[in-house]
Amino acid sequence: MERALLDAAWVELTETGYDDLTIDAVATRAGTSRAVLYRRWPNKQDLVLATLLHHVKSDAVPMPNTGSLRGDVVALLKAANELRLRTAILVFTRLGGFYRDADTNLAELAAVVQGDRATMIDDIIEQAVARGEVQPGQISERVARVPIELFRYELMVRLQPVPDDVIDGIVDDVFLPLVHLGARRSD
């Protein structure tokens, strides 16, 4: 039942955006009553947050293991390009009222959606360390976030899929040179 409610809320959210989303419309789409929704989520912000969490978890980006740090980061960004485009556009363009009503912002929302789990880029770096491509501690937390943040920026300004050559440039022209600088510093 909860999945059906969250799926209905997702469709409403993508069609109308946060500001025009109503509990009544979600209930109608799910074939239930407003009371059923309010028992689970006391307000629209909680429903939207639960909907985003459900959608992200149900459409997970697969963990790449191409055999190289470069290949894994490129594969991660390309998979996110395919699987997360609609979600990213919604988060960037259709949740203005949510940020205001929930007194939050994009960075805080991303932290809630991510939760306590390590990000996939951390797992990719651990794989690279295990393969001997990089040394433990060679890639700082800030450098590790660079490909994700640049990819997110490209999505935000384009509002369409990031071209493969741009993804390659993020990895080859920015991320990997920073990784190599980290290796020189640790020598």
Automatic annotation (TrEMBL):
Domain HTH tetR-type: start-end pairs: 1-59
Gene3D superfamilies on file: Homeodomain-like, Tetracycline Repressor, domain 2
Signal peptide: none
InterPro entries: Homeodomain-like_sf, HTH-type_TetR-like_transc_reg, HTH_TetR, Tet_transcr_reg_TetR-rel_C_sf, TetR_C
A Pfam family it matches: TetR_C_11
Domain of life, source organism: Bacteria
Keywords of the record: DNA-binding, Transcription, Transcription regulation
Residue ranges the UniProt entry marks as DNA-binding: 22-41
Tagged with keyword Transcription regulation: yes
Protein name per UniProt: TetR/AcrR family transcriptional regulator
UniProt organism field: Mycolicibacterium sphagni
Taxonomic path: Bacteria, Bacillati, Actinomycetota, Actinomycetes, Mycobacteriales
